[in-house]
Write a structure and sequence with these properties.
The structure is a homodimer of 224-residue chains. By secondary structure, chain A is α/β, with parallel strands linked by helices. Chain A has one domain: HUPs (Rossmann fold), CATH 3.40.50.620. The first copy, chain A, has a five-stranded parallel beta sheet, sandwiched between helices. In chain A, helix 2 links the parallel strand 2 and strand 3. Chain A is globular. Chains A and B meet through strand 3, helix 3, helix 4 and helix 5 of A and strand 3, helix 3, helix 4 and helix 5 of B.
Chain lengths: 224, 224
């Protein structure tokens, strides 16, 4: 019997690398999907490619589209500064409808290759700020997906898996280490340099560093 | 008081041109969005541009992304033939997750410009075949969108409007004619030539022709 397939949304960051390791451990044939959507940091795409190769995915695709043409986020709009401290409420690094767009594109690919799962590395640290990382959002997306697709209508639609959603950053890191994830390859920084060196001061760097500290694991991040 | 804004998903076809005319009639400042997603027929994008100009939209954007890289549809995959007769069930021209992807991208732009509505020209003729044209799908997308975005979380999220959903093709045409839509500018054909001349034999051409016949309106379509 051939193995079941899973699409993994792979950003090149710590969380999605862990989600891929979990999907692989669960025995899926993995198809990884990254997006070149106009984000400032292109090195995360290099990281995603490396992580896909190391994990021997069946296929890694990078879809190009310029989400920056809509503007409105510090991650795609050069006129909005990346903040240097954790903000209250929804941060300016929020990209409008990003997870909805990414999951929708994954849904399309899942239907074509007949994947049974889509793995998304959202987690509890993120969802305090981003609305599209919360469990109730994921549930609503699943409900919509069940009605949206030929496979869903036929009763064998794809399931969204969010194995990290209830974990803290340090728990994610501990789980990833146990699965052999090399976090030195991952890039979380919102403004990494061309070689993937992290800034150490943006929200994402701070959350990541705290995760390694809390996990009692040496931080393998390459800083500038 | 400034007018409210609406995003209109504009394919260049008959339905979306009518949806735009309805949004304009309702008094919205209109922002039209088209996609260059790897569809065979590029002339529909030219048609969309013309329709946007004629209707004096505030802004018309065309987002490029290659949905064809996933394959799986006769509309983006050259290896799947466009059928010459109406099919039973879900047709091969179905593009996996297309409306979900398009609505998700519109949702992102809506949030950035603070649009209150997204107009989508789905209708009852289409939804007999495409799962993502049915009212229950639209309702589920709305529910998901309310949870997905900063605006939704803050209680002023965008509303999806489908003014054609309960209309037949002939009713849509009659409504459009009353609003002054020039259907000679629209392209519905799945395989129109470079000048926008329709094939007259694909599903989309047949449905359109029947619509004009049933409406008792002369068919302005430019055929090959």
């Amino acid at each position: 019997m051939s193995k079941q397939k899973a699409i993994i949304l792979l950003s090149g960051g710590l969380d999605s690398a862990t989600a891929l390791a979990i999907a692989k451990k669960q025995g899926y044939d993995c198809y990884s999907l990254s997006f070149n959507y106009g984000q400032r940091s292109q090195t995360e795409l290099d990281a995603a490619r490396k992580i896909a190769t190391v994990n021997a995915v069946i296929e890694h695709k990078i879809l190009d589209f310029n989400l920056g043409m809509f503007g409105g986020s510090a991650l795609t709009d050069d006129e909005i500064e990346i903040p240097e401290s954790l903000e209250e409420g929804i941060p300016v690094t929020y990209v409008p409808a990003r997870n909805t767009i990414f999951l929708s594109l994954a849904l399309g690919w899942a239907e074509v290759v007949d994947a049974k799962k889509i793995f998304l590395g959202v987690n509890s640290v993120d969802y305090s700020g981003y609305p599209d990382c919360r469990p109730e959002y994921i549930k609503a997306f699943q409900n919509m997906a069940d009605l949206a697709t030929k496979a869903g209508v036929e009763g064998h639609g794809v399931q969204i898996e969010t194995p990290l959603i209830d974990l803290t950053k340090s728990e994610i890191i501990q789980q990833g280490i146990a699965l052999g994830v090399d976090y030195g390859e991952t890039v979380s920084c919102y403004q990494a340099d061309g070689e993937g060196h992290a800034c150490a001061i943006c929200d994402s760097c701070r959350l990541r560093k705290k995760g390694f500290d809390d996990a009692g694991v040496e931080d393998p991040t390459r800083y500038q």
